[in-house]
Known about the structure:
Strand order of the largest sheet: 1-2
Mean pLDDT: 91
Largest sheet: 2 strands, antiparallel
Distance between the termini: 38 Å
Order of helices and strands: HHHHHHHHEEHHHHHHH
Structural class: mainly alpha
Number of helices: 15
Amino acid sequence: MIYELFYPLSLEFGWASALNVLRYTPFRAIMATITAMLMSFLVAPWFIQKLRGKQISQIIREEGPESHFSKRGTPTMGGALILVSLLVPTILWADVKNVFVIATAVVTAGYGLVGFIDDRLKIQGRNTRGLPGRYKLLGQFTIGGAAIAYLFLNDAALPQGWLDMRTRLAIPFLAFEKHPVELPTIVYIVFAVLVVVFMSNAVNLTDGLDGLAIGPVMISAGTYLIWAYIAGSVLFGQPLAVYLDIAGIPEMAELSVYAAAMIGAGIGFLWYNTYPAQVFMGDVGSLALGGGLGMLAVLTKTELLSGILGGIFVLEAVSVIAQVVSFRLFGKRVFLMAPIHHHFEKKGWPEPRIIVRFWIVSVLLALVALSSLKLR
Length: 376
């Protein structure tokens, strides 16, 4: 919005030449990060106090680790603060006419609404059941499917470069142009929606310890910030995407502003969510952030690479799937408790150790993902 309102002034009036800085995506990304952080820092104390006053507190699973019982009464639904601190700076500093930014923001907000309903039902019912899984998935598939269908079927509103590559699958560590993998449109749409829904639920499953989910979320967002900017940038008259042989068009660069706002919102939230947490994220935050990361993966053509970058989220989700399948088929559990972070708790690992080690692994995976820019 700021870009749309003030950048044109720099072209028309000499006195407004300083506003020319708004044309640079890195500047707007930095400002989005700062804005998101300041919003979180300033609003969080009041917001947490309101949650306590309304007794909006975390429901603890009775079968969970005993160490979690002391967390009863901790305010939850802090993800609502993340959403505001993410979406407002995105609207302020990104190009709001960019179809990629619009679609990603819509999915983020929509998934946040699904998570909000889930959290409210848990609090009102004083149990951990919340919104039935089938309705949650229905909401996720509907919102994600609508956004993806628009990006894959509405030719008139989409950039030409995107039309040329939208159904091409990028294989990690292989050159995009030299190893084309074209999928039928309907197949790619289904695949893309599954990526978004899976990532949303994977982040949700990871959100089980103080600061555990938000750390890898910020690391992933930082990686997408770099990737999106490179994919949409030009250096010495040549698109960097062409030089590196990755999927890229100029419109992708604007997603770096959204990713930057996610980092800022995450840092501000982590200030209050770090161990021992003063507030929990709740589904309103985890489903929304996961959906946003899924959209970043689809729109930067890194769907398969996201399995490496978001390896922590994938591990958490796979551990739950393996636990359920093993117990139903063989009557045995693979882990002491799923998701896998609870397995390590049951083995006696202190909570901060699990959190920091998962963050370290996430950083390593992000570096591996970024290395694919040149290793191809």
